[in-house]
Every structure is written in C-alpha cells, then in structure tokens.
Automatic annotation (TrEMBL):
Molecular-function annotations in GO: zinc ion binding
Protein name per Swiss-Prot or TrEMBL: AN1-type Zinc finger protein
SUPFAM superfamilies: AN1-like Zinc finger
Alphabetized SMART domains for the sequence: ZnF_AN1
Amino acid sequence: MDTCYYCGLEIEMPFECNYCKDKFCSEHRLPENHRCVKLHLIRAKRFGEKKVIRGSGTGRQDNIFKKIIRKLKR
Ligand SMILES: [Zn+2]
Ligand SMILES: [Zn+2]
C-alpha cells in the first residue's frame, strides 16, 4: 500500500508523476493538482512550444477588462 505524496491518502494503485517521480492518488496525479516541483519547468516548456511570449497572461485579462469597460460606457 502506497500513500499519496500530496494528501496522504492510502492508494493501492498509485499514479507516478512523470516529472517529480512521486506517487499520487487519482485526484492529485496531475502536476497542477499536487503543486509539482517541476510545474514551472513544464509550463516554461509549454510556453516555449507554443511561442507565446507575451508576459504572464495578465495582458489578456487587461484587454478583457478594457472591453467590458467600453461596453459599460456605451
Ligand atoms: Zn492525493
Ligand atoms: Zn509531480
């Protein structure tokens, strides 16, 4: 019997994280769900693949807010 590295739940068939190699329950097997120590590396990789280098995504939110404000003004 193994235990989830994140929540300590006992699991018969633990999921192993491909990145940090720790064992997790089905709920926490995804890097996002167990605050994987490699998460920032995974994200950096994903961003690199898509070539999205426009800040950290806050710019998009700003644009949405501006659009909403414009609509309200009309
Ligand atoms: Zn868990
Ligand atoms: Zn992990």
